[in-house]
Amino acid sequence: MKKFRFLTSGESHGKCLNAIIEGVPAGFKITEDDINKDLERRQSGYGRGKRMQIETDKCEIKSGVRLGKTTGAPICLEITNKDYENWKIPMNISDDDLKNKEILKIVAQKSFTTPRPGHADFAGSVKYQLEDLRDVLERSSARQTAIEVAVGSVAKQILREFSIIGFSHVIQIGKVKAEVIPQNYTLIKESAEHSELYCADDVANDVMKEAIDIAKSNGDTLGGKFEVIFGNLPIGLGSHVHWDRKIDGRIAQAVMSIPAVKSVEIGAGIKSAELLGSKMHDELFIADNKIYRKSNNAGGIEGGMTNGEPIVVRAAMKPVPTMKTPLRTVDLYTKEQAESHFERSDTCAVPACAVVAEARIAWILLDEFLEKFGGDSLNEIRKNYEE
Ligand code: EPS
Known about the structure:
Blueprint: E1 5-10, E2 16-22, H1 32-43, H2 51-54, E3 59-63, E4 65-66, E5 69-70, E6 75-80, H3 101-110, H4 121-128, H5 134-140, H6 145-160, E7 165-173, E8 176-177, H7 185-193, H8 202-217, E9 224-231, H9 247-256, E10 261-266, H10 277-280, E11 284-287, E12 290-293, E13 301-302, E14 305-306, E15 311-317, E16 328-330, E17 337-339, H11 350-373, H12 378-386
Antiparallel strand pairs: 1-2, 2-6, 3-6, 4-5, 7-8, 7-9, 9-15, 10-15, 11-12, 13-14, 16-17
The protein binds ligand EPS.
């Protein structure tokens, strides 16, 4: 039985986004404030669009936490979509009002049949036999990642009890790359926190902003790369014994399935293909009876298990496919050549994507942590952990 599991629901312009988390042991301090801080980080970042000006994402804990602490019961989280007020008619659950011509007109205005290349519209409409692509867009929208970040924040608050802490930073926007001192995580974290793009390189930060401005003025979008680091992990999360228990595989799936992510790397990642074995592998040394390493090309994972070094995960995000300057597509209703659908969009959402990846990695780490040290309460887990 999985230790930490959850389901989410909700549409981009529906009433709200929800999650029910099961398997959180009793006795952990969880606050809405901490969740909301992460939600604010997901909403920020230079290059975000108009929707983020409408929303001020706030998460309500509906159950499973009492007097500040988890009780062991399922935790229900909810984020209200403020924009729903503007979408009540086209997002109505019932079809009763469709007899009214005015309402039918408003619903038709929000329907579309011109799939956005790069988005889920085309394949989703064929798979689920949905004529109105709105039915695909509503769930495939990156809006969904708000509730995922809330779940990740709960995971991070639990991991924090054991001093396991993570952060993320942007390392590339379009062709502009950041230069940082490798492995100087304290400095990288501090510098990234002060940047509008969560980028630790001040100079690159400004050039990145210019690139975003240019893309915006052309009605275009920009992708990039980010890195997530989690430190102070115990040795042995994950396992070498079976493919689906390898923690690098689980992290890769969790990050790869974030909307718009196209590649995931761990440690030296893609560069490892060109390194000699003598340069790639992180040698072990001993001093004062303590084993240590001088490098971390493995990104904290060997044989599908954490090895005690920080976990380092990088990912590339493609440019958001909802574009003001439309791409060529086919109208699935008229079967004629057409231009892709546009409502509004972010010019660049790489900083937000980094926050989402942080959340998703936290789910996996917590799941593996509970599998190894599991118990029903904080005290029991702490005892197992300390032993
Ligand atoms: C997003 C909400 C969406 C988009 C964006 C991210 O809201 P709306 O569709 O109402 O503008 O701003 O998602 C996309 C561009 C996309 O293609 O999925 C959010 O909350 O992060």
